[in-house]
Amino acid sequence: MAKSIFEQLGGAYEQQGDYLLPCLSLPAEKEQPIGVWGQRHLRYLKEYRRATYITLLTSGRLNAYLADIDRQAQERMERLTEQMKRAQGITEQLKAENALEWVQRMNNIRACAREIVEREIIFA
Question: What pTM value is reported for the model?
């Protein structure tokens, strides 16, 4: 019997009941830590950008892509937080004098920065 194209390219089949199924595996990918932002983007890809998710997964680039997105989002979050702190005049002196007001204002800044990062990077 003639070999199939899959077999000619070095593929193999395994018997599963009455069927011969090709032995497929994903390409090896370097494991990199993925933080909160990368996990959020992964969830977004799975739910709303399925084709992009499948393409990245099958090409072996998903982990590197998510680690890069996580790094970009974290850097953007830190940069925005610092810029907003300077613009609103939030200092360590305020923290020492009125800790409750400092916490309120910082929580507001972090929430605003989180929304911007999600809109620009995570859900884009």
Answer: 0.77
% of the chain surpassing 70 pLDDT: 94
User: What are the structure tokens assigned to 28, written together?
Assistant: 């090896």
Angstrom distances, CA of residue 10 to CA of 33, 40, 110: 33, 38, 53
Per residue in 10-66, pLDDT (tens digit) is 777 788 888 878 777 767 777 888 999 999 999 999 999 999 999 999 888 999 999
Domain that holds residue 113: 33-122
Signed CA dihedral, 22, 26, 28, 31: sign only: negative
Note the residue count of the chain: 124
Q: Is residue 98 part of a domain?
A: yes
CA distance linking residue 24 with residue 4, whole number of Å: 15
**Count of domains observed in the chain:** 1
